[in-house]
Amino acid sequence: MTGNFQFGLVSGQNQNIAALANVNIDFSIVKCAAPPEYNELGLAISPKRRTEAEDGPVHTVARKLALLLCDDLPEIPDLVKAYGIRASEIAKNPKVNPKGTSSDGAFREHIGIDGTSLWAAATSGKGAVAVHLLACMLSRMWKGRATAVWAEMVSRRKAMLKQRLAEDIFSLDDFTASTIQISRDQLAEWDASARAWLESADTAFSRKQAQARIIIDNLGIELPSGSDVYKIIMKSWKEALRFMENIVNGMPQAVETGEILLALSSWHLYPDLEVLCAVTRLSSKMIH
């Protein structure tokens, strides 16, 4: 659905809103082909999890969050590709993705890596993979408390969009997003799947994660802080996406803020690091 269809909010404002309020959009029926870099992930997860990702509530949540949060994100086509390659590599690792057998009985479909939220994102169109990347950052930052953060993000974004409706013009996407309903249980399921993926990826790259963790801890660069959690998260997420897109595209970057290091530890892409006093320089000579 594009955001180009606009209504002038003049004398017909109330009638337009009343008419649109009766529109019921089923997000679960909209599916997109996953980028080819994610295909091996789709084949590696269990059929049950793949079905849940494509047709279940997690798919709906991915679609809704993408529409709600992604209208002004930076373009990240190469980061999406690089992450898909890394995700497929993780999913093919037998250490974190053992295959269920007949001896596992009723638990067979639950054996193996939980890539549900990521496959749901990969099949949910533009922006959804970026939302999964945000989920990994939040799960890393708020262990056990990310569901409350997601609920606050959804609430704040909807309030902002509703405020737009009182202005001169608004897009159909803005109206649709402002009416989205995502329950706390659905957000908890989304977060739990992202957290499970994060733990599996940590295990698959345990040595590199340990090395990255030592460097990050020794740098002592703190994450942004303040009372406006929504604003901090959105700014940090966008800057991390833009930064990593540049790295993947071969542009060395200097790190002076903590959100970049949080993204590095959450997305399992490992550029070369050169530590110079309080500034870390990242090179894309090797994305390991």
From TrEMBL:
This is Uncharacterized protein. It comes from Glonium stellatum.
